[in-house]
Design goal:
Keywords: Hydrolase, Iron, Metal-binding, Nucleotide-binding
Strand content: under 5%
Largest sheet: none
CATH topology: Hypothetical protein af1432
Order of helices and strands: HHHHHHHHHH
Catalytic activity: P(1),P(4)-bis(5'-adenosyl) tetraphosphate + H2O = 2 ADP + 2 H(+)
GO molecular function: bis(5'-nucleosyl)-tetraphosphatase (symmetrical) activity
Structural class: mainly alpha
Number of helices: 10
Radius of gyration: 16 Å
Number of domains: 1
Bound molecules: 2'-deoxyguanosine-5'-diphosphate, fe (iii) ion
CATH class: Mainly Alpha
Pfam families: HD (PF01966)
CATH architecture: Orthogonal Bundle
CATH superfamily: Hypothetical protein af1432
Helix content: 55-70%
EC number: 3.6.1.41
Low-confidence stretches: none
Length: 197
């Protein structure tokens, strides 16, 4: 499946504005994939389908979480978090994509998690920094994304946590786990830098 075919499959599932966002995420993710040596085709497909389930009915997503092997604690958090894990499941079922690395990148794209691999980090970050985003602090994250993938993801997780806290919103534990895990990596690099200079 190439990018064009994938976009044609996803389009009917999205509003125009979400489809435009998706195309920008694809461009951004492919850019990062080139920069960080990730497989271009996998990156493209993961990016195209990352928000596949964004407009599924809340009750339908709830039923999938209950009936399938998905983390039940999701039900105690905002339904905005469900479209990643449910999306991964539905893309496998409805589109027939079986590549686990693609499915996992989609699954974790909203919350992140500890121990993300390169493709997971690229989709997580591209979704945050695509040129249509105007989150507070996003320009700094864009800058860092090209300096260091882990630093970019860490800043994105940090900003999201700060934003959600400022709104007194609950935060899914995997987002904290992503933040903590990336912080260790980032700190190790800072230490190396300081020793090397
Ligand atoms: O689907 P998108 O709008 O492109 O972006 P997304 O998949 O990152 O999810 C959207 C929102 O989910 C994001 O703006 C913040 C919100 N959200 C709610 N609770 C949490 C959360 N995001 C994270 N990372 N962790 C949470 O616990
Ligand atoms: Fe999303
Ligand atoms: Fe998105």
């Amino acid at each position: 499946m190439d990018r064009k075919q994938a976009l044609a499959i996803v389009q009917p599932h999205l509003k125009q504005s979400r489809f435009d966002h998706t195309k920008r995420v694809v461009e951004t993710a492919v850019d990062l994939a080139k920069f960080y040596n990730e497989d271009k085709q996998k990156t493209e497909i993961a990016a195209v389908f990352h928000d596949y389930a964004k407009y599924r009915d809340k009750d339908e997503m709830e039923r999938w979480i209950i009936s399938e092997y998905l983390p039940k604690d999701l039900l105690h958090y905002h339904h905005e978090l469900w479209h990643g894990p449910v999306g991964a499941l539905l893309i496998k079922r409805e589109v027939g994509i079986n590549d686990l690395s693609i499915l996992n990148a989609i699954r974790w794209h909203t919350t992140g998690k500890a121990g993300m691999n390169k493709l997971e980090k690229i989709i997580f970050l591209a979704d945050y920094i695509e040129p249509g985003r105007d989150f507070p602090g996003v320009d700094k994250v864009r800058e860092q994304a090209k300096a260091d993938l882990d630093l970019g993801c860490w800043l994105a997780a940090k900003n999201t946590i700060q934003f959600l806290m400022s709104k007194n919103q609950p935060i899914y534990p995997d987002t904290f786990h992503a933040y903590n895990d990336l912080l260790i990596t980032v700190k190790d690099k800072w230490r190396e830098d300081m020793n090397g200079k």
